[in-house]
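for the writeup, i need someone to sanity check this before i put it in the appendix. the sequnce is what the collaborator sent (i think, or maybe the updated version? ugh). structure was predicted straight from it, no edits. if anything looks off just tell me and ill rerun, i have time this weekend
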Amino acid sequence: MTTRTNYSPWLSILWILCLAIPLVLLLTASGGGMHSLIWMWIILLLCFYMIASMAVASRTAGQTDEESVADDGVRMIPDGEQPPAIASVMDVRVATRQQGVGLFRGRLNMPADEALQKLESELGENAVPLIQQDDELGTAIVLLNRPTEEATLERSTRRWLHWLLFALTFLTTTYAGALHQGVNLWEQPSAFTVGLPYSIGLLLILGVHELGHYFAAKHHGLNVTPPFSIPIPFALGTFGAFIKMKSPTRNRRALFDVAVAGPLAGLLVAIPALLIGLQSSEVLPPETEVAGGMLGHGTSAGSSILFALLSKIALGEQLQDGYLVQLSPLAFAGWLGLFITALNLMPIGQLDGGHMARAMFGRRVGETIGSVAMWSLFLLAIFVWPGLLFFALFIFFIAGRGTPPLNDITPISSGRQWIGYATFVILAMILIPLPHKFWQAADIYCPYL
């Protein structure tokens, strides 16, 4: 996942705590009756209310006193006060200013890429031009003052912090991997190797995913940090990883490339890890009593088209109608890799899929797709799998709206379009259960039909 946030370290810690508490509650809410369930939902909603409040606070924390008391009214900009650079690239029909932001609407008299380059060269370093679509007049140029905080963003990367977080995440995922198999490393530290297949597999998937974003961003000349890993001492052992974008993407091509590189790179590790891990997984007949724990319950191969295909390739005739697969630690890491990839590919806000949808279809269509996807996720959580509700709430409060590129006009190439379509097909194959007509022929059980 890529983010462009400027939160303080303490605010980031509060974010993580507020996200950790609901996950713990959801994982421990299986018992206790209706009374404990009601309290769980009360605490859950309070935590997400705190997250929403912090999101609002973070957006206003950087404002100066002058900005906080600025007049909210819109002022028309006379022709004589309009920057000459704007007039050189656009036939301006409407020009307004609100809270220090200039908005110029009309039609460009040159391609958007050339207009952006000309504006940057003539306006200098004190202004940031954004070229966006305008439903009425064709094009809008938004002229922003370069934020004073940008000098802070340019400071050197503290690589020791990235390595420290990675080391802590390695420890927590190793602990979690061992605990999933019934081994408590606090009591048996010498048995740490039990948790390594899960830990190494999951960290490889997450790390390669983020490095895909990182190198794609570097290829387009963007200022970006190395991956931040997020360790947690329970559940899966990690909340994943993210990179922080310190500069805006220049155009929709760069936005698409950075977004799609992560999921595709992660799948290059997740799929082989799953195939290898399935070789050591156990196939359980329907009448078998399975053990407890996160890895003990059998997994239905038919719950996903892609997982069903990979399971059939790896297990062959062992996998019959009604059988379950008890995933090995490495296979579980690969399965998580598919699940994490699917979440990131949801075409919503600042998720990878949201950036891709905006780059492929533009702002207006991309936001419409995002709204449909968000409500679809809630409906799936309510009527199909309640476990999705946590992730739906997480995405609703965290994803927000995608950050626009500087040139939001020029479309991406047809080749990138087809890559985007293929990637969203992969998303569908991960999320959609195996159709009824196919699971009988493949001798794979589908739990939804």
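The first helix runs from residue 9 to 27. Residues 5-10, 28-35, 59-71, 148-154 have pLDDT under 50 and may be disordered.
thx in advance!!
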